Amino acid sequence: MDLSTLCVEVSMNPKMFDILCCPVCHGDVVLSDHEIACVKCQLRYPIEDGIPVMLIERARKPS
User: What is the CATH number of domain 3-58?
Assistant: First the structure.
């Protein structure tokens, strides 16, 4: 599934990824399995009601 399709499914604008970054390491982020994933430190952030929750305390390490 491509980024545009995933963004529609979670009600996000694909251009949002141009401005979002990981709040921990400031790395780039991507949409992965209906959550936001940092490509540098691998932390994952939830998306709730189409809104990315980029709070450090809500981040989780990949399993």
Answer: 2.20.25
